[in-house]
Design a protein that fits this description.
single chain; 257 residues; alpha/beta; Rossmann fold; 5-stranded mixed β-barrel; two-stranded antiparallel ribbon; 6 helices; 33% helix; amino-acid biosynthesis; adenosylhomocysteine nucleosidase activity; glycosidase; adenosylhomocysteine nucleosidase; EC 3.2.2.9
Length: 257
């Protein structure tokens, strides 16, 4: 089916705000002025005003393919000038705990194992047209990254019940793969191999699409668990708090633009 591209207008371009889970998406939608929902190619998009910026908000769903598909649809229909992806993640750096924020200074995959056209092993993804290798890690847009760093210094982030300290925010490396990690040994193996700070299932797919299309992108993750054997229990217990923190950071970044 051909994408139904919206007509061009003289209004400022959109900022696309994407989330994998409904909780953070609903919180951002609730912050919009003049929110209007529409369905395009079976996906729901909500447009409106956040601060001084026109934004489009949508749910990607879970996993790399869903995230890449939704990002491509946003680009085809709304031609955003920037993309911010947010949601929850598992923390694998030892000093991080649920409730903390990891701003993706760079994001990459932990499940890519391939070979180049000259049969050299690689962990890099490949451009579908030029067949050139993408970066091993997709860098954050410097402007969005700087705004997110500044925003998290002054935000009052909610504490996870039972935490021994307030949430903190770091700039770190986020790894993506089509695997829900709920094993301490597996999480530690990824941390050690990739020097990862957080792991999730969508961010690098969004970043790859943005990189290949030349669209500034930032991935922001709020930790809901430690990717260990308690991950499912912790995710369910801490999801709303983690989603609230990620939505706060996204709103602050957009309002600072």
């Amino acid at each position: 089916m051909q994408a139904q591209t919206l007509p061009q207008s003289s209004l400022q371009p959109y900022i696309a705000l994407l989330g994998a889970f409904g909780e953070e998406v609903k919180l951002i939608e609730a912050s919009l002025d003049g929110a209007t929902a529409q369905t395009l190619n079976g996906h729901r998009f909500v447009t409106g005003q956040l601060g001084q910026q026109r934004v489009v908000v949508t749910l990607t769903g879970i996993g790399k393919t869903n995230a890449a598909l939704t990002t491509a649809l946003v680009m085809a229909h709304f031609q955003p000038r920037q993309v911010i992806f947010t949601g929850i993640a598992g923390g694998v750096r030892h000093d991080l705990q649920p409730g903390d924020i990891v701003i993706g200074g760079e994001v990459g995959y932990h499940d890519v194992r391939s070979v180049t056209l000259t049969m050299e092993p690689t962990r890099q993804s490949m451009h579908p047209v030029s067949f050139t290798l993408n970066p091993l890690y997709f860098p954050a847009d410097p402007t969005l990254l700087s705004l997110a760093e500044q925003a998290t210094q002054s935000l009052d982030l909610a504490m996870i019940p039972g935490s021994e300290r307030p949430p903190k925010a770091i700039v770190g490396r986020i790894l993506t793969g089509d695997e829900f990690i709920h094993s301490a040994p597996r999480a530690e193996a990824i941390r050690a191999e990739y020097e990862a700070d957080a792991i999730e299932m969508e961010g690098a797919a969004v970043a790859q699409v943005c990189y290949q299309q030349g669209i500034p992108c930032l991935v922001i993750r709020s930790l809901s668990d430690r990717a260990d054997s308690h991950a499912v229990i912790d995710l369910l217990a801490f999801l709303s708090t983690a989603a609230s923190n990620s939505a706060k950071v996204v709103r602050a970044v957009v309002e600072a633009l």
